[in-house]
Amino acid sequence: MKISIWTLLGAERLPTESRGKLGIVALLYFIQGSPPAILWEVLPVYFRLHGVSLRAIGGLRLLELPYSLKVFWSPMVHRYGDRRIWVAACMLAIAIVVGILPFLDVTRPGWTLVTLLLIFTTLSATQDIAIDSYTVGLVSREEEGAANGVRASAYRVALVFIGGGMVFLAAIFQWIWLYLIATIIFAVLALSTFFVPRLDLPAQAREQWLAGFVGWIGTWRAIPLVLFVLSYRLGEFAIGPMVKPFWVDYGSSIWPDKAELMTQIGLVPTTFGIILSVVGALAGGAFISRYGTFPGVWALGFLQAVSNLGYALVAWADLGRFGLYGASVFESFTGGLGTAAFLAFLMNVCQKEHATIQYAFLSSVFSLTGRLVGGVSGLGAERFGYGNYFALTFLLALPAFALLPWVKGWIHEDVIINPKRRILPFDNDQC
Prior knowledge:
The chain is mainly alpha-helical and 431 residues long.
């Protein structure tokens, strides 16, 4: 039996035009994932190697609060200009910031570094608004499963290419050259947005942005939705900032040579790990295309939460390199599954003509508690130890699942089940 990439994506039923849209989605989310590759994959390793404390590394995650506040300036992106211009301008400015970073003294983080990182995250958050809005408007309901697998995968490919590449090459090249190469790549990505077709919002939707938002969120039904979005990725955000420092601290006893340690971090949790998360995201998108968004949200999300216990077992039982490898593999693959499910949920509950503000609101909500928890993650790891803290992050992920009965009604998923047990969503552009 011949299996194509479209079959793996759950997109074998989609027309050629839809497959072209998936290519556009892949480019946009590679662009979106490039700045976080610096924030999440490179800077924790870079700071730890320069002697920055766990407390300070975790605290710097508070500078990512613009991702949680972007809803406040999303109306500006919604009302004015071409969304491609917003993406290009933000990426060019981000490229400049990345080019400045290696010339700063990070051994004692000061206000200059803090300000620069705050500018960086604000630009990245603004770019996210434009990309998410464009994508929700571009993709039809029947394309959402495959599109969310692609967007989660492309995002992670950026983490591999930019983040894993820089960490891996740090064993060979000086950091300054790596940051300058990243600057050039970011500038090229900014220019590539002009190859994406223009997609305009209706004039009425631009003018009536407030009515569209209030009418969508202004009921009691929004309370469980907001609570669910707040808590669904809490465990992931809590463990994320401490994974790479754990590799540095735990791995230093396994690989005493710093160059070998850097190679291991660049290959396993970063490059190979993110490749596995890409596979997981594609598998998650295919699962959702076949079985629907709601089954994906609870089944795939729970697997992602359980994966946090893998690192806890490594720390508690001192499982060595192979235990570390196993925890990384499980966490990376299930992370892709859970992300694809959550992205599908966010896209599904938004109205296409008002997606700029609605999606910005939801993504701001889910990242708010995440940034705050991430900001104190270093304190938690220092206070409880790595093993106990990683177990605690699993418990933080559980409350969201108790809310599932109340959020199910938000999911637009009229389905039929055929004899092959495939679930086919009807197309409807309204939530």
